[in-house]
Amino acid sequence: MRRTVPLLIAAICGIVLIVTAFIPATVSWGETAAVWFDILAAIAFILGGGNLLKIHLRRVSDQSEGWAYSLITVVTFLLTLGVGLFKLGISPGSDQEFYGETFAHLTVEQMPEELTFDLPVSLAAELLDEEIPASVRQQFSVKIEDKTVTQLRFRGWMNGGQRQDLLNLHQKLDWQCAIEQLADLAAIPDQLAGEVRYLPDHRALSVSGSLNEEEETFLRNISDSQSWQRATDRLVERSRAVTSYPISTPPESFLVPQSYEDRIILTENNIDVIGPVGPEMKAALVDVFPRTRPFTEEQVQQYVDELAALPGGLTDVQKNTTAGLLKSDWTADQLIAALNDAGVRQERTKSACELLAEMQAGEKNLQLTVPPTEPDVTLNAAQEDYIQQTVSNSDSDLSAMVQTLSTLGDWLPAQEAALQSFLQKTPTIPMRNRLIASALITGGETLSEEQFEFLLAGYREQHNWQEQMYGLMVKSHQVKYPWSGEYIAVGSPFWWSYEYAFKPLTATMFSLLAFYVASAAFRAFRAKNFEALLLLGTAFIILLGRTFAGVMLTSGLPESLSAFRLENITMFIMSIINTAGNRAIMIGISLGIVSTSLKILLGVDRSYLGSGDE
Amino acid sequence: MKQIIINKLANLDRRWVFLSMLLAVAIPILLGLEFPETPTQQAINVFDEVERLKEGDRVLLALDYDPSSEGELSPMATSFVLHCAKKKVKMYFLTLYPGGPPMIQQAIQRVILTDFPNLVYGEDYVDLGYKPGYEGVVKVIITNLRELYTTDARGTNIDQIPMCQGVESIQDMDLLIAVSAGYPGCKEWVQYAKTPFPDKINLVAGVTGVQAPYLYPYVPKQLIGLLGAIKGAAEYETLVVGKYIEGEPKAVYQEGRRRMGPQLVAHLLMVFLIIAGNTLYFLQSSHKKS
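The joint structure predicted for all components is written out below.
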């Protein structure tokens, strides 16, 4: 039995793979067999490791000759295995972590009854023949009676992605209307929206930033269940943890953003923050440097003159480059165009329930959208003049333009968002100066130390501040998945052993070949007979032809004799003589493989199964 | 006296030979000896095949080697990645060697992260990492990539990687580039990928000097082009750098040519040693006869 089963496995797999090579319809059989082969190959690594340990530990135990090498092998094997398997010293993967969020363990089953939302419906049961989307599989369920879906149930809050996944399941209006109603029912309350969410795949309740008292009370009042209260306690405790981070003097223009005033305490050399810092908060803390604004011709000239007046001066090319870069900044006209675009009113897409109601009312030609009832809002002359004047005035606060623009004419919230978005995309002055510095030193041009200082001092300050805020974000972060980092991450113990032990050792072993080949060439490569002479001549040609020496030695040959140049003879030997010889050998080997394989598959040759002895 | 010298030389301590090889390699490295490279037809074929690609085409880069052959193969891998990045194709990295993942990381670090920071992971390049199974891996992914690669090397679900969407198998690749040191490697890609699907797979390769003679029989039908050893790397590097880099290229893009200096001197030493060994052999033989 011990020999028959492996024999059968080998025979079946082999025959399946042969069959799949000839019958395209059976390709999937071959895939399955090959996947099993791959799994077994992976298991072979484990067996190999076990075998290595067994052999070397026995040698150490017996203290047989060379046992010290065996001991080194065992120790390094276990060390490498340990640091690689347990990912020692490896930071969590940044793409697996949720910066700025606090988690509390809560499974879907632990979700309180108060957060179970039921919607009575009457839908055809075949609608659910399709597979439920993975994003809602844990939370969504249905009740079916007599081939009719009578109830839809959702545990926990439904997010936008889940709603869309369910809507996409069917295009039928009754289904989509039911899902819209269920989504409204299971929507997160306004008091918690944007702050709290439930992640079923992570089995966790999450809070962004810090949970304030109002939110805490609201959350607690949702349910008295023990698991819910425990999760809330955990969120309150962790989201209010204070992180203290040492900082150098903040930039002059730094003010704690209003929206985070209750979470940040700034002292002379320290910043204390309540709760974890997320990317949005970090961006707000970093956004303290003045942004560029359009330059007039005079301002451009003034800037160029100021830079040229510093020691080192500027060449004409550098002056033109500087002026060109300054003029290529954004303009007031671009901002006006962006605001006018945002003033175009959008069509409203009708909900599925609206469409269903229209259909049930007898409407045959359903329109999916509702055209806007009010005209588009375009900036008037006063608003445009105001923008033109304000952007050129370096003392004005561009983000405060909203107040005045809304009083000068029609103004939409979408335009306000477009204005903020536009300004956010403009570069800071230090970044623009750095761009100018790098443009001025390309093409072999140089700048003096004073000019570098003029252009880069601001960027240095900005970079330092960004780094500090990044450090604050990392320090305040609460790790969710400590093992999510890559085992080979730079700086980790595994990487270190690979980079400084495995890599040089294996490279050294391979490079020893050169020394042994050289020794063999001197001591053993003899032209003892005609065949050896042929081999020797070929070796000479290849050795010379594979380097510049070959080109150099025979470059004097005329074009008509170019076939006799060493590099061409080398190519001839490799692609004609070598190919012919190798093909003959390969065909011979292949025939041998066919015959051996058949013997193995048919069980004639069983030597691969071993002797059967222990 | 003459015979004594001949005998002494014939029985020269092998450590002198080792020392001469060390000097033959070390001196050109220290002096930075470089020689011009004239690309052979094989290198031109490889270059033309990559050059034929259009922006957005898919290229599978199988870096099947580990540190033991890094000296020979990493210049090739660097040039391939540089060429692909310049052509703006989508790069799918994988390896059949257990020691290969850091080689992929190294190629990405050297070229993409350093000189092409605008390329986005998951959109322009992806690291599919290592899978055990040798040729079994090729056999499966040639018809169904997702049977084996459910995630990339970072553990991200393959369906969530934008550039993997729409890739059912490696038959969807526009070009396969195999940089290989031995088994499993180029030969397996030829046998299990190119041969069963000759019309769908285009394969070029860069291999070690030891492996190259065994792969010439596959040129040109199964292998469109073959780069052999550091010489092939230097030739291909010359073509890529010549077309895409203006002025003095960075050191990392000259590695192939830089390594041809020591190779030339080492080869000359080998020729000298063979001649010297045979001369001494014949002198000894003639003396015995006389």
